[in-house]
Amino acid sequence: MTLVTPTVEEHLAGLDAAVDRMAVWSRSAGVDAPVPTCPGWTVRDLLAHQGMVHRWATAVVRGDDPAGVDDAAIEAEGRASGDPVGWLLDGALPLVDALRAAPDDLAVMTFLKEAPPARAFWARLQCHETTVHALDARAALEARPLTADDLWLTDALATDGIDELLVGFWQRRTKGPRSENPYSASVSTGEGDTWTLEVSDQSPVTRRHEVRDGIPSGARTLRGSAADLYLALWNRGGTVDDPTGLLDTWRERGAVTW
User: Fold this and answer.
1) How would CATH label the architecture of 8-144?
2) Are 132 and 236 in contact (CB under 8 A)?
3) Rounded distance, CA 186 to CA 63, Å?
4) Distance of alpha carbon 31 from its chain centroid, rounded?
């Protein structure tokens, strides 16, 4: 499959849009509202977490030592803020500015499999991180399962977010689904974008797949629109065709945690 890779500017526009939505929906829901997509969290917890991640990422992009960032202290600061939405916004703006000012050959650490160059990596990562948590704020406000109509991303950005999860996160040593009985699986959008996964008791092996090549015989399948698959694979809702219950088996090990 030939993945259409969004530009850094498209990812930064996506990050800006996600921050704006997260702020609006968080204020409307109220900081004490529970977040059904993050069991045990309130909106205050959600804002503190995302604001901490933005500040940590800003330090990395600026070339600071990420080990010197006290994430627990920053998150505590966010929870204690009298205006946690404003605190979120105060952390997001410097991140966007740092990424806009960074050179294309930025030399800082990245940590996902098949990662793009560092500037593109961090713009992409923070676009999708913030989009997912903005969806959490929407879930807190609406108190209902999320659907594809709740996702504002273009198909290209939604597909990009699926790719980051399946190729980038899930192939890491500690991430992705596992099975003592190895199997093949395919994930396909309505636009024909397909990924093939080989799942075993080791890290999954994911490859971008051309539909014309055919999928492995006997592969378990997961199909849906780019928006629905984005929601479903990030554990935020969506409606997909999942005849063998892949999502249930992937949910725990497939989750991305800090």
Assistant:
1) Up-down Bundle (1.20)
2) yes
3) 38
4) 22
pLDDT band, very low/low/confident/very high, at 210 (cuts 50, 70, 90): low
Taking the CA atoms of 244, 149, 19 and 37 in sequence, report the sign of the dihedral they define: negative
Phi/psi at 104 (5° precision): -60, -25
Residue-range domain boundaries for the chain: 8-144, 174-254
State the Cα–Cα distance between residues 104 and 86, nearest whole angstrom: 30
Separation in Å, CA 77 to CA 38, 50, 51, 99? 20, 12, 10, 24
Tokens for 16, please give them.
């800006």
pTM above 0.90, yes or no: yes
CB 66 within 8 A of CB 60: yes
Q: Is there a contact between 168 and 59 (Cβ–Cβ < 8 Å)?
A: no
- C-alpha distances (whole Å) from 131 to each of 124, 126, 164, 188, 234 are 11, 8, 13, 21, 11
* pLDDT tens digits, 33-59: 999 999 999 999 999 999 999 999 999
Separation between Cα atoms, residue 176 and residue 181, nearest integer Å: 15
CATH number of 174-254: 3.30.1050
